[in-house]
Amino acid sequence: MAERQYVIFKLENEAYGVDIMNVKEITEHKESVKVPNTPKFVDGIINLRGDIIPIINLRKRFNLKDITINFDTRVIVITIKNRQVGFIVDEASQVLRISEENIEPAPELVAGVDKKYITGVGKLEDRIVLLLDLEYILTDDEKEKIQQIS
């Protein structure tokens, strides 16, 4: 039975996972520079070892209540269209192996664009983890706007 590794992160009290093969790095949160005329869920840009990276606030993207950034807040960096993009999460706590037999398809009640970024539901002994593909959290138009941020 094949297993996949997922970086587990939290938003509010919910656990989410992203395939570790899609994660470039996880870093501590640092203050971003605001960029005018960007979507409301773009917190700004940061300089990460010489690379300018747009920062997406997943709480805002998912229309969740905003909270104060704290010691546990992390930024998960992935590559979208050859550009690094950071996603702010409440915490990125661990890497888990989930066997493919314990992954179910996205629920039917999820419709439209949301279903595109939900790759499945991981079943663990005492909880479930919603598995996401962060690249598809943004629409094609939003990806184009992110590409233009500098």
Automatic annotation (TrEMBL):
Q: Record's PANTHER family?
A: CHEMOTAXIS PROTEIN CHEW, CHEMOTAXIS SENSOR HISTIDINE KINASE-RELATED
Q: Which InterPro entries match?
A: CheW, CheW-like_dom_sf, CheW-lke_dom
Report the protein name in the record.
Purine-binding chemotaxis protein CheW
- Entry GO CC: cytosol
Look up and give the organism this protein is from: Marinisporobacter balticus
Cited Pfam families: CheW (PF01584)
Q: What is the lineage of its organism?
A: Bacteria, Bacillati, Bacillota, Clostridia, Peptostreptococcales
UniProt-listed Gene3D superfamilies: CheA-289, Domain 4, SH3 Domains
The biological processes this protein is annotated with in GO are: chemotaxis; signal transduction
